[in-house]
Amino acid sequence: MNIRIRNFKTDDFEDVLCIESESFAEHNPFAYMHFYEMHGDMFLVAEYLDFVVGFIVGYRLNESEGRVFSLAVSEEFQGRGIGRMLLDALFKVFYSNLLKYATLEVRASNIKARSLYHKMGFIPCWIEKEYYSDGEDGIIMKMKLSSYKFQNLDLFAKKIESISIRDTESFNEYD
């Protein structure tokens, strides 16, 4: 299966909303356009045969952290590594913006997502009691980007003019 990860375009809005509504009980369509306008380089989609089959939205939380706002993959494409590909692509954007950490929040009951995040290197930091409107707790997770094993980092580093391959290795010095 040939999946392509690319930046979100406004033409993708309907597809993103469709995936979002099938994936989440709570959703806010206006939030996605806001994130696109404010953080367009951190809004990515997964495309298969010209169809959007997944998306990820992130933003800069502060000087050292990037936040994963939303990640969803169409039901029929789940379990094929697309979520991992989207996370990897967003981590590269975070990394190129010199961010040291990635954070996210996940429903306590979402075992599948929690498992993926754990495999990607996230660790649970704390629980937000009754985070969701239905009363469910949210788990805040965090990972150190310097400890993440990027896919094709050498190719990626060559594309970033402001960071040499030697400089990317120095990220291991951050705590």
| Shape, per Cα inertia axes | globular
Strand segment tally: 7
CATH topology: Aminopeptidase
- What is the top-level CATH class? Alpha Beta
Question: Which consecutive residue ranges, at least 5 long each, have pLDDT under 50?
Answer: 154-175
The number of distinct structural domains comes to: 1
Give the C-alpha Rg.
16 Å
Structure in words:
The chain has 175 residues and is of the alpha+beta class. The protein has one domain (4-165): Aminopeptidase (3-Layer(aba) Sandwich). It is built from six helices and seven strands, in the order βααβββαβαββαα. It has a seven-stranded mixed sheet. A hairpin with a 4-residue loop joins strand 3 and strand 4. The longest helix has 15 residues, at 82-96. The radius of gyration is 16 Å and the shape is globular. The model is unreliable at 154-175 (pLDDT under 50).
Topology summary:
Elements: E1 4-7, H1 13-23, H2 29-39, E2 43-48, E3 51-60, E4 65-73, H3 82-96, E5 101-107, H4 111-120, E6 123-128, E7 138-144, H5 153-159, H6 165-169
Parallel strand pairs: 4-5
Antiparallel strand pairs: 1-2, 2-3, 3-4, 5-7, 6-7
Key phrases:
single chain; 175 residues; alpha+beta; Aminopeptidase; seven-stranded mixed beta sheet; 7 strands; disordered C terminus
Condensed summary:
The protein has 175 residues and is an alpha+beta fold. It has a single domain (4-165), classed as Aminopeptidase. It has helices at 13-23, 29-39, 82-96, 111-120, 153-159, 165-169, and strands at 4-7, 43-48, 51-60, 65-73, 101-107, 123-128, 138-144.
